[in-house]
């Protein structure tokens, strides 16, 4: 199987999308990341990352219904594909495995 | 919008920006998201901060290359598809209208081929002598002399060279250049027999020659090669000719059987585009070594005798004005009042020597700016005539394309697109024509070589300058011939075009087409008339009686080539004796009618000499052409006497003090009649010159080329001046007579190569340039009438087709074929007649100007103009009637039913 390459920010966006579930679109994802990590995230960065993840096949998207607050424009909702879910799992596994091999002393020092 | 109040509206321009670049399929969501965020930002951070954020994001989203494969909407134009579509339409049109396309393309191709060939010629003419290192700093010293008339010469006096080197500042190097022919003997070494050659191009130069001209040496050191009078530098070609592949350095050549020259260098062959033609470079002092001491001294001191070219290389900092300002002072060094009073020096840039020396006497220039300008004009005109064809035919054809234009416009094509399409078609046809033109030019190249005495080969076309020129030509042609039809055709109103009412619009453009046809035919007519008149003038010059016998005269170059030492031992010297016995031997041969020696043959232009007739002083400055002949010259060439007698050996003193003058001289000197001139005292040369009396007056004969007026001439006997030997032979058995002549020559003059020419051939050669012009013009006028008629043919074919309906109706109503042909041809004939009205005065004026340059000229005859006009009318009529006749002979049922 092809190796999955995910950048740090991509991983973040992917995870946030997973958290938000049905409510995942540009604005909510941006705000959620800001809330969860405390870092200032640019919308345009999120937008391009979402596009890229969709191109890579980790996300799929569909247009939602129009809302008045957006001037009648529709939202594009994102959801994880199976590849996306798999990729997240794989990353988690790798991390856990790595963490499990780190000696305890360093863990303490690291903190 | 209802929920968003005014403060929640983001900056409009940022939104526009988004709309502009954002891919259509994600625009909605992005705008939505940003709108949502904007409301949030306004609520949390305030309006201005929100604006900033919005704009920032809008810009950040603009990443033009982020999207790898832009997905196009089906509404966006498919440029590639359209181009291939246009191409297809263009090709279809071209192939459907075979006749028109043929006329268009072949006409353009002919015009382009002419321009290409002439472009090659012009480019080559302009490249002359620009290749020397620092050729911009090299100048030739020319002189203007103002005696009885102003005369410019490319040659100056010999002492000027060293004088400039000595006393003119701002000159880096200076060299004299004097080309003479001479005999070159290869000395016998290694027991071989000495071989003898007659070489035409022996150049005497100063040792500083290589400082002026960067002529690369294959062998030898340019700094020292010519330092001694006993050295010679030869061309690679001569080295090959004399010594084969072996190294010629150090070998010895004998020049004029007087001086032994050691080869100290070999130069690479001179480039094709230079006016220098020498094969041997020798030290200038050789000239004085081979001449008689008194003549050598005269040459080294006299500032009026001007036989040599002088080239100066200015130092980088100095200007021509600066150097020229020093010339009056330089001329003062001559110590000769006449030089100071009447002679001026000026500089001519080396690259201009080739083309701009026409009016200079001295070394003949091989180029002519008039010729270049004339040829360029002809090329331009021919191309113009071809372009006019294109414009005419395409405008006429516009009708056929009207429906297409209407349809395209209805479907939303912008005018610019249509112009693009038609221009594209013009370009396509131009490119086709261009390919054809290159092929044509390739085929015609040998012809150009012959006319221009050039040796072009095909790769010469690939010269970058020429390629640039050709490309520019192509673009220009396409623009010139395509723009008008394109603008015209694309301008149809779709409604009018689709309804088929365009013919009215087309016929409104009749005026323009008529003007173009008139211009075209005027150009053609002028070219044809010029061809005929120039041909007449050349044959007039060739056949005009010259006042002496020119047929069956064999001319053998004798001693003028620098070894006058041989004959200068005086009238009774051993050489003169040898010549006398040779002439005696010749007189035994019944096929040899006469023989004589003289300084130069008629037609070659004579030296001018100061002459003081009775009643004048030296200060009168009368300079008259002068030829030195032997006793039997005048009878040998059958020049009749008006009064007095010929030189006679019996008198005994004729070679010392007798002069014969021509009729013009008698008139110039103020004698009432030829008889009166006989017996008058006269002096040739300044103080201490030859004094004598006039013993005879001869008829005027053309000793100059015929493009110069008849001038006074004095004739005397001065043996050291003899340069040619002339023999008149019987008109039968010429080859045998020549063989006998050669045999006898070799017996008497073993040290000289036997070379001969015929006098009439030499004389004819003077008119080579005019003849070249006449041949060239005949080619171009032929081409021009061909192109014009092609155009006329196309136009006639089209108009006839257009009026076939009318023709049919007329026929049904009883019109005869003849009357129909007349009806249809009338318009065209009228145009050609108008062209005649323009061309006749124009041609008359131009040709009159040209003929003015000849002293002997034909007068313009009206019948030439009338004849050409009638012929052109006839050709035009035949061209047109071939079409109209076809149309009027057709069954009217067919043509009427068609609509």
From TrEMBL, chain A:
Gene3D superfamilies noted in UniProt: Winged helix-like DNA-binding domain superfamily/Winged helix DNA-binding domain
Highest taxon of source: Bacteria
Residues in Transcription regulator PadR N-terminal domain copies: 20-90
Pfam hit, one: PadR
Signal sequence bounds: none
Protein name in UniProt: PadR family transcriptional regulator
Organism the protein comes from: Rhodocytophaga rosea
Lineage, top ranks: Bacteria, Pseudomonadati, Bacteroidota, Cytophagia, Cytophagales
Automatic annotation (TrEMBL), chain B:
PANTHER family to which the protein is assigned, alphabetical: ABC-TYPE MACROLIDE FAMILY EXPORT SYSTEM PERMEASE COMPONENT 2 (PTHR30572:SF18), MEMBRANE COMPONENT OF TRANSPORTER-RELATED (PTHR30572)
Major location category of this protein: membrane
GO MF term list: transmembrane transporter activity
Topology in the lipid bilayer: Multi-pass membrane protein
Annotated localization: Cell membrane
Name of the protein in its database record: FtsX-like permease family protein
Transmembrane portions of the chain: 102-122, 371-391, 426-448, 468-495, 515-535, 776-801, 828-848, 860-880
The species this protein was found in: Rhodocytophaga rosea
Record domain MacB-like periplasmic core: where: 101-328, 561-705
Keywords: Cell membrane, Membrane, Transmembrane, Transmembrane helix
Every ABC3 transporter permease C-terminal domain range: 377-489, 779-892
GO CC terms, sorted: plasma membrane
């Amino acid at each position: 199987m092809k190796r999955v390459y995910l950048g740090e920010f991509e991983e973040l966006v992917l995870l946030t999308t997973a958290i938000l579930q049905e409510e995942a679109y540009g604005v909510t994802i941006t705000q959620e990341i800001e809330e969860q990590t405390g870092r200032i995230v640019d919308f345009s960065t999120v937008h391009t990352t979402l596009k890229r993840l969709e191109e890579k096949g980790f996300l799929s998207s569909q247009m939602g219904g129009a809302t008045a607050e957006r001037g009648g424009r529709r939202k594009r909702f994102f959801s994880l594909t199976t590849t996306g879910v798999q990729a997240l799992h794989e990353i988690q596994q790798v991390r856990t495995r790595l963490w499990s091999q780190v000696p305890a002393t360093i863990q303490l020092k690291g903190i | 919008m209802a929920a968003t109040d005014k403060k929640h509206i983001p900056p409009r321009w940022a939104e526009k920006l988004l709309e502009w670049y954002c891919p259509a399929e994600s625009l909605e969501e992005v705008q939505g998201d940003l709108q949502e965020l904007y409301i949030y930002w306004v609520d949390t951070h305030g309006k201005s901060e929100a604006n900033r954020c919005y704009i920032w994001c809008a810009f950040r989203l603009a990443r033009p290359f982020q999207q790898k494969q832009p997905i196009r909407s089906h509404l966006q134009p498919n440029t590639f598809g359209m181009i291939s579509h246009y191409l297809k339409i263009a090709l279809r049109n071209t192939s459907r209208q075979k006749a028109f396309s043929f006329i268009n393309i072949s006409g353009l191709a002919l015009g382009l081929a002419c321009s290409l060939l002439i472009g090659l010629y012009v480019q080559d003419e302009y490249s002359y002598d620009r290749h020397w290192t620092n050729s911009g700093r090299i100048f030739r010293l020319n002189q203007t002399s103002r005696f009885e008339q102003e005369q410019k010469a490319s040659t100056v006096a010999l002492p000027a060279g060293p004088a400039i080197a000595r006393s003119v500042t701002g000159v880096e190097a200076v060299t004299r250049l004097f080309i003479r022919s001479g005999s070159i003997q290869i000395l016998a070494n290694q027991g071989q027999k000495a071989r003898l050659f007659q070489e035409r191009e022996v150049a005497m130069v100063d040792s500083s020659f290589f400082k002026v001209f960067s002529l690369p040496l294959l062998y030898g050191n340019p700094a020292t090669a010519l330092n001694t009078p006993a050295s010679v530098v030869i061309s690679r070609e001569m080295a090959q000719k004399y010594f084969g592949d072996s190294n010629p350095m150090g070998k010895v050549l004998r020049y004029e059987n007087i001086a032994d020259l050691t080869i100290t260098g070999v130069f690479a062959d001179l480039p094709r585009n230079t006016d220098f033609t020498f094969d041997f470079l020798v030290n200038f002092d050789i000239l004085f070594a081979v001449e008689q001491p008194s003549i050598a001294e005269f040459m080294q001191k006299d500032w009026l005798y001007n036989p040599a070219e002088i080239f100066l290389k200015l130092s980088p900092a100095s200007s021509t004005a600066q150097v020229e300002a020093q010339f009056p002072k330089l001329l003062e060094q001559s110590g000769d009042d006449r030089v100071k009073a009447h002679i001026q020096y000026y500089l001519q840039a080396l690259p201009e020597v080739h083309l701009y020396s026409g009016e200079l006497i001295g070394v003949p220039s091989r180029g002519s700016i008039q010729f270049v300008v004339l040829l360029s004009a002809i090329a331009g005109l021919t191309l113009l005539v071809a372009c006019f064809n294109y414009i005419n035919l395409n405008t006429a054809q516009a009708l056929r394309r009207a429906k297409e234009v209407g349809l395209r416009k209805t479907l939303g094509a912008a005018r610019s697109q249509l112009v693009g399409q038609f221009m594209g078609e013009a370009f396509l046809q131009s490119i086709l024509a261009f390919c054809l033109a290159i092929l044509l030019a390739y085929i015609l190249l040998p012809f150009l070589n012959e006319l221009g005495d050039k040796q072009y080969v095909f790769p010469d076309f690939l010269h970058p300058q020429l390629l640039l020129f050709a490309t520019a030509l192509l673009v220009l042609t396409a623009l010139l011939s395509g723009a008008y039809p394109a603008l015209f055709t694309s301008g149809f109103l779709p409604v009018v075009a689709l309804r088929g009412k365009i013919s009215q619009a087309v016929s409104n453009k009749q005026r323009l087409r008529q003007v173009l046809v008139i211009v075209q035919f005027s150009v053609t007519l002028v070219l044809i008339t010029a061809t005929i008149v120039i041909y007449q003038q050349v044959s007039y010059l060739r056949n005009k009686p010259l006042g002496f016998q020119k047929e069956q005269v064999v001319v053998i170059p004798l001693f003028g080539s620098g070894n006058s030492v041989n004959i200068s031992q005086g009238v009774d010297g051993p050489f003169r004796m040898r010549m006398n016995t040779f002439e005696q031997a010749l007189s035994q041969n019944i096929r040899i009618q006469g023989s004589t020696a003289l300084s130069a043959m008629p037609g070659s232009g004579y030296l001018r000499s100061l002459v003081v007739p009775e009643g004048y002083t030296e200060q009168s400055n009368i300079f008259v052409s002068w030829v030195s002949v032997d006793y039997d010259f005048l009878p040998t060439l059958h020049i009749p006497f008006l009064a007095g007698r010929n030189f006679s050996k019996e008198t005994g003193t004729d070679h010392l003090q007798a002069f014969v003058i021509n009729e013009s001289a008698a008139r110039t000197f103020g004698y009432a009649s030829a008889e009166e001139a006989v017996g008058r005292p006269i002096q040739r040369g300044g103080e201490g010159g030859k004094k004598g009396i006039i013993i005879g007056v001869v008829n005027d004969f053309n000793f100059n080329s015929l493009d110069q007026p008849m001038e006074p001439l004095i004739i005397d006997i001065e043996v050291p001046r003899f340069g040619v030997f002339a023999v008149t032979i019987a008109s039968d058995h010429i080859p045998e007579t020549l063989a006998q002549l050669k045999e006898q020559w070799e017996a008497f003059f073993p040290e000289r190569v036997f070379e001969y020419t015929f006098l009439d051939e030499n004389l004819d050669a003077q008119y080579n340039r005019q003849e070249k012009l006449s041949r060239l013009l005949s080619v171009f006028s032929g081409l021009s009438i061909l192109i014009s008629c092609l155009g006329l043919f196309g136009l006639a074919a089209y108009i006839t087709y257009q009026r076939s309906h009318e023709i049919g109706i007329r026929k049904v109503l009883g019109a005869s074929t003849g009357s129909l042909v007349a009806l249809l041809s009338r318009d065209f004939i009228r145009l050609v007649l108008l062209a005649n009205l323009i061309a006749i005065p124009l041609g008359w004026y131009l040709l009159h100007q040209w003929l003015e340059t000849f002293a002997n000229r034909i007068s313009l005859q009206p019948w030439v103009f009338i004849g050409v006009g009638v012929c052109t009318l006839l050709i035009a009529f035949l061209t047109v009637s071939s079409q109209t006749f076809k149309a009027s002979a057709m069954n009217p049922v067919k043509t009427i039913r068609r609509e």
